[in-house]
Design goal:
The protein is mostly helical and 117 residues long. The chain contains four helices and two strands; from the N terminus they run H-E-E-H-H-H.
Length: 117
Amino acid sequence: MAGKLNLDPTEIVNKQFAIDFRGYAPAQVDQMLDQVIQDYQTYEEMMASLNKKIKDLEQTNASLRAKLIQMEGTMRAKSENDKDTQDPMMQGAAQVDLLRRLSRLEKAVFGSDKNRQ
């Protein structure tokens, strides 16, 4: 980043110039104006640097957002595919569990086999 500023607003407002024969001392006014010009140049350099950083960060942010959206889509597609193509052993275990539940439900509703005869 650019250098430090020479003046702050209170220094500019409170600046007192010596009074010369025809008004303020021109050397003092010129010196003050030179410092103001240097500060404006420094300020412009700082603004340009910060604007460039903002632009770079906005581009990085947009890139990261695009990657995030892409990754979320990939994860969503993967989870949907995983549901469809589970391990056959897991599918079999789930089916056995379902059959056990149905059997218990039938026994609760219709009673045991001994009661039905």
